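Cross-check.
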Amino acid sequence: MKRKTLLTIDDSPSPLMDQRLEFLRQLDIRIVWFCRGDNLTERPESAIRALREGHILGNHSWDHPYFSTLSLADAADQIDRTEALLERIHLVAGVPRTVRCFRFPYEDQIGSAEHHQALQEMLAARGFEASGLRAVTDPRFRRRAKDLSWFWSYDLEDWTLRSSDAPDAAPTLQRVLERLTRELPQRPSGLEVVVGHDHAHTVGQWEATILRLLDLDCEFVSLEEARALTPPARKPSLVEALP
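Predicted model, tokenized:
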């Protein structure tokens, strides 16, 4: 049985986003791109293209700081400046903004319990929504399912990839692909929320990770399709199964 998979990509838009959009278009895959405000100022046209091709754009802060170290005023500034750009980009693209989603850089948000709660309230006040992905069974994801920052269930670790001309580029890519091949089949059943990265130096190596996911029987679904999935049926324990 194929593993339903929602692909999410952080740090967009990079100079390679158009290349990646074309790759995904050929595979008929639509994903969630979490965008940095500073990158949006440089490449708004890539974000506009993504919207027009059916992808979702999310907020990933202005310039990728550790939110646990920020004052609430600075955190609000990081979020609001990026939000203003996303609103304008949707308007220019002519695509209504139907999903308002946010992901903390590094998923770093908890300086203290009070700080975490204040950030959640800040996101709620700005209309951000929880992922609504009921079919994910990964325990770490389930613990954060009600948070308004979108977590993931599996990290591609493509951020470890080197530029193609680096001496360790090939062995590093091989390690990433071998890890996928070893770990993913052992993952719990249910929807997988995969996080990757739109980094400018990874050239064709990023595509290799997506192709490996397909080789491992991942079936990519859109956010709308992912939200419609229901949790897999729970197998009864041995005691429950006794007559």
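The longest helix spans residues 72-93. The chain has ten helices and six strands. Passed to J.P. for a second look.
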